[in-house]
Design a protein that fits this description.
The protein has nine helices and 20 strands. The chain has about 325 residues and is of the alpha/beta class. It has two domains: about 150 residues, 3-Layer(bba) Sandwich (FAD/NAD(P)-binding domain), CATH 3.50.50.60; about 130 residues, Alpha-Beta Complex (Polyamine Oxidase, Chain A, domain 2). The strands form five sheets. Strands 7-6-15-16-17-14-18 form a seven-stranded mixed beta sheet. Strands 9-2-1-13-20-19 form a six-stranded mixed beta sheet. It has a three-stranded antiparallel beta sheet with strand order 10-11-12, with no helix packed on it. Strand 11 and strand 12 form a beta hairpin. The termini are close together. The model has no long low-confidence stretch (mean pLDDT about 95). The chain binds flavin-adenine dinucleotide. The site of flavin-adenine dinucleotide has 36 residues, from helix 1, strand 14, strand 18 and helix 9.
């Protein structure tokens, strides 16, 4: 009988891991959300489309570059933006330097994950709340104590602060999990009735509140309705995580007004998303965590760095080790 493996999370790490392992084991992914992609996220409201998590990804390793290019060929990804300018209090500084390709999912950022996930066994809206040891395997249960099944191995790809809550005290990599530091981010989404030509597709913002702005309609395959996605700085988000959402939104809008000279507070659509664990400040510094005695492991961007590719690399490294182990079994 094949080894059964439960993967917690259908972000890029969980999906990469499942793809690599599915020829060698019975793999099931549990994802707490309705959609796939995790922090490679897309939200559609009132005809507006926002990529409210990762903005684009780069692919430096040959394997991930091949995956990105294959997704482009299959219509699951495209290239954007042409340039990332800098928006400062005294104006826009254009960036004309040649750059490596930057990829986005199609028709939204999660499209890249959806394309990679084709054919995988994924249980959506299934939150893994507890792992209980039962002789030779693990019994997974959800928030309502519903049995999600028994598995030989369990791998969590949830952000480290969430993975640590799932792992038993006996998990040998507890100290490494605890050492990981992640930071939050607020994302402001603005939908407008009329077109806007701010002179850029995307810009890094030099400001004490905001860090990034993207013009969604400048992306291939998106809604043509004018939509802006704006990220706060991570340090500002950390200092304001528990603050009233209305106040957070008002301060972000105030900063934007200073930078663009325009008040968006009466825009047709306004929404705010809080990412509790958005970016990796201090990674684990090892490609993955695995306890062979317990049959429990973890991987994700937080193992190696702060990028989509780091999540894919972490999952690939763990899958290579697991395949060698399964073949030796
Ligand atoms: C605002 C923001 C901007 C970013 N910008 C960029 C960028 O421009 N470029 C870049 O390369 N990277 C960027 N990133 C980082 C990038 O999104 C991540 O590095 C990458 O998506 C992480 O993938 P992952 O699979 O490791 O984790 P995730 O995408 O977080 O996946 C984990 C999954 O686990 C699920 N989950 C968690 N707990 C449970 C549970 N108990 N049961 C079931 N499911 C569970 C979650 O719902 C999620 O789907 C950004 C991130 C954010 C938030």
């Amino acid at each position: 009988m094949k080894t059964s493996i439960a993967i917690i999370g259908a972000g890029i790490a969980g999906i990469t891991l499942a793809r690599n392992l599915s020829a060698h084991a019975d793999v099931t992914i549990f994802e707490k959300s309705r959609g796939l992609g995790g922090r490679m996220a897309n939200r559609r409201r009132e005809g507006f489309s926002f990529d409210h998590g990762a903005q684009y990804f780069t692919a430096r390793s040959p394997a991930f570059k091949a995956a990105a290019e294959q997704a482009v060929a299959q219509g699951h990804a495209s290239i954007w933006p042409k340039a990332v300018h800098a928006l400062k209090a005294d104006g826009l500084v254009t960036d004309t330097r040649p750059t490596e390709p930057r990829y986005i999912g199609l028709p939204g950022m999660s499209g890249f994950a959806n394309g990679l996930a084709e054919g995988l066994d994924i249980r959506k809206e299934a939150t893994v709340a507890r792992l209980a040891a039962s002789r030779d395997d693990w019994v997974l249960t959800d928030n309502e104590d519903k049995d999600l099944g028994r598995f030989d191995l369990v791998i969590s790809t949830a952000p480290a602060p969430q993975t640590i809550r799932l792992m038993p005290e006996a998990f040998s990599a507890h100290a490494a999990l605890k050492a990981v530091e992640m930071s939050g981010c607020f994302t402001l989404m603005i939908g407008l009735d009329a077109p806007l030509a701010p002179g850029f597709e995307a810009a890094r913002i030099e400001d004490h509140v905001l860090s990034w702005i993207a013009v969604e309609a400048s992306k291939p395959g998106r809604s043509e309705k004018t939509a802006l996605t704006i990220h706060s700085r991570n340090d500002w988000a950390e200092a304001n995580l528990e603050r009233d959402r209305g106040e957070v939104q008002a301060e972000m809008l105030e900063s934007l007004k200073r930078l663009l000279g325009r008040d968006f507070s009466t825009a047709a659509w306004l929404d705010l998303h809080r990412w509790r664990y958005a970016n990796v400040e201090k990674p684990a510094g090892q490609p993955f965590l695995f306890d062979p005695a317990l049959g429990l492991g973890a991987c994700g961007d937080w193992c190696l760095g702060n990028r989509v590719e780091a999540a894919a690399e972490s999952a690939t490294a763990l899958s290579e080790m697991l395949i060698a182990r399964l073949q030796g079994a």
